[in-house]
Amino acid sequence: MSFDDMDVGTIWMDGEFVDWEDAQVHVLTHGLHYGTGVFEGVRCYDTDNGPAIFRWEEHLDRLYQSAKPYGMEIPFDRDELTEATIELIDREDLPSCYIRPIAFYGYDMLGLDPGDAPVKVSIAAWPWGTYLGEDALEEGVDVAVSSWRKYASSQMPTNAKTTGTYVNSVLASLEADSNDYTEAILLNKDGQVAEGPGENLFLVRDGEIYTPGLAESNLDGITRQTVIELAEEQGYTVHDDATISRGELYTADELFFSGTAAEVTPIRSVDDVEVGPGTKGPVTDEMQRTFFDIVESGERDEWFTYV
Ligand code: PPE
After folding, report:
1. Which helix (H) or strand (E) holds 66?
2. Using CA positions, which residue lies closest to atom 8 of ligand 1?
3. Is 150 one of the catalytic residues?
4. Ligand 1 pocket by Cβ (under 6 Å)
5. Bridge partner residues of 51 (DSSP)
6. Which H helix or E strand runs over 202?
7. Domains and CATH numbers, the chain
8. 137-173 tens-digit pLDDT
9. Which of 116, 117, 168, 287 has the fewest CB atoms inside 10 Å of its own CB, making it the most exposed?
């Protein structure tokens, strides 16, 4: 997505609302040089009861957890970040939007140990439609297994959403794009399926649902947790601790991605091999409908923070 022609005027930065153009950092910011930032991607939906942030509390949990391995103390508490976000959405009058909170080591030193570098925090929000292209939700996307592997949790925490680690995702996305695929799938260091560059992955076989366990080097996605819970409620057997081999991608009945930005997106081919009949499958369709019914209606109070 591009910020050209974006009609949002304000960003919350370190406790204040500033003009979009003024939300700047110094070029010697620690996080810019070493990727020492943690962030979230959250969606606010225009529900039947008005704009509501989907699973905000879980995203906040993950933000603070992501900061821990990096010794980063976020100098704002949950209430302050919640209030700032709600006021931002309210000020900009956004019925639905994507929210990007970020905390990073700022400017006053360089050198790998961030030591006493200040921790800077910003929250931006803007409208963001379909992540993987206009028809992606209906038609599904064509993906390729990346030649880049997902980093292992022995190298960098895979359960932290850290800015620096996203260079791994960027490489996989660039490769997919240069080969004319919409998205990539990354295998982990053992060669088993990990996830997409910005999505978790689900597989359907013989009416049961599989998703790689958290030890497979994937992010503990909040949409993943949502899909697992909803699928179980729908009566599906969900194997949420699965190990999925590359070969199983080609023989699956259905595959789909989950993520805040990607929501529930069908995968119609992997490496030019059609998944099932090459269209959105019935289980994917049901999970997609269940997901969108909830975020559009706002029915399930405990998952929404109203603006
Ligand atoms: N894995 C990765 C690597 C990932 O980045 C995301 C979210 C997920 C899984 C799904 O997690 P969750 O959003 O909690 O269900 N990716 C975010 C960033 C996308 C971007 O392009 O930037 C997102 O979807 O907001």
Report:
1. helix 56-67
2. 199
3. no
4. 41, 169, 195, 198-200, 219, 221-224, 258-262
5. 46
6. strand 200-205
7. 8-126 (3.30.470.10), 136-297 (3.20.10.10)
8. 999 999 999 999 999 999 999 999 999 999 999 999 9
9. 116
